[in-house]
Amino acid sequence: MKKQIILFMNPIVTLTLQADLRYVRIASVTACNVAEIFADVACTAGNVAEFCHAYELSISEAFTNSVRYAEPSQPEKQITIRFSSDNSTLAASIIDTNPQFNPLTQAPDINSYPEGGYGLFLIHRLMDTVSYTRKDGTNMLTMTKRATIMHNA
Amino acid sequence: MNISEKNINSYTILSLQGILNASSAPQLKTYIAGLPDAQSIVVDLENVEFLDSSGLGALVGIARRKKTSNAVIKLARMNERVKKVFEITQAYTLFDIYDDVSAAAEA
Prior knowledge:
The complex is a heterodimer. By secondary structure, chain A is of the alpha+beta class. Chain A is built from four helices and five strands, in the order H-E-H-H-E-E-H-E-E. Chain A has one domain: Heat Shock Protein 90 (2-Layer Sandwich), CATH 3.30.565. A five-stranded antiparallel β-sheet of chain A has the order 1-2-3-5-4. In chain A, a hairpin with a 3-residue loop joins strand 2 and strand 3. In chain A, 39% of the residues are buried. Chain B is of the alpha/beta class. Chain B has one domain: STAS domain (Transcription Regulator spoIIAA). In chain B, 38% of the residues lie in helices and 33% in strands. Chain B contains four helices and five strands; from the N terminus they run ββαβαβαβα. A five-stranded mixed β-sheet of chain B has the order 1-2-3-4-5. In chain B, helix 1 packs parallel to helix 2. The longest helix of chain B has 16 residues. The radius of gyration of chain B is 12 Å and the shape is globular. Chains A and B meet through helix 2, helix 3 and helix 4 of A and helix 2 and helix 3 of B.
């Protein structure tokens, strides 16, 4: 079902950045801007700010993870973020050549004061769907969210 | 991110301005590492435009170290965008959170 949704989406924006934490804000601001443009067209609930923040935060998390898990042997590694949409749903795919990872995550045990491990958990809570594929050494984490039905995280 | 410091009562008040993410969180950790471990602090978040889990993780790490030093970290003036991250992760349970800085420094 998830693959069908993605298949019929039209590409909007593709952004490729060097895998460097200095560029995480470029990734998240771009996500916010794309979401805002899309939400202006698609949102019927009038909750544009919440929709944009969900993308700003999710892409910040995904880009940060991608940089942190990059192979040290690939200093010039790049991360591509591809936005696509249909009439009501915006999708963002984060594409990298990092080692394979498990995209399923549980909430970190907050009582142990963890400094990390929140990223994928947040993405799952903010987005409607999160899917992961690995093909020919390339990871693609795809998240989607409908603009017309806002879900409280 | 800009960090400014002042003292109220026995607390050091750190006012953050800007973005608190993976790029800027090390700056906050370094700044607080320069303060005495036993110094209790209030972090004023009013002018934090954006916080992600790297920013959250930095604050949680500081909270853990303050706890072991019998000091405290309090958070003040969270906006709705910052509050959402604390709510989803349940991290608000680790902090005393106040609507204004003065109340945080008096409690």
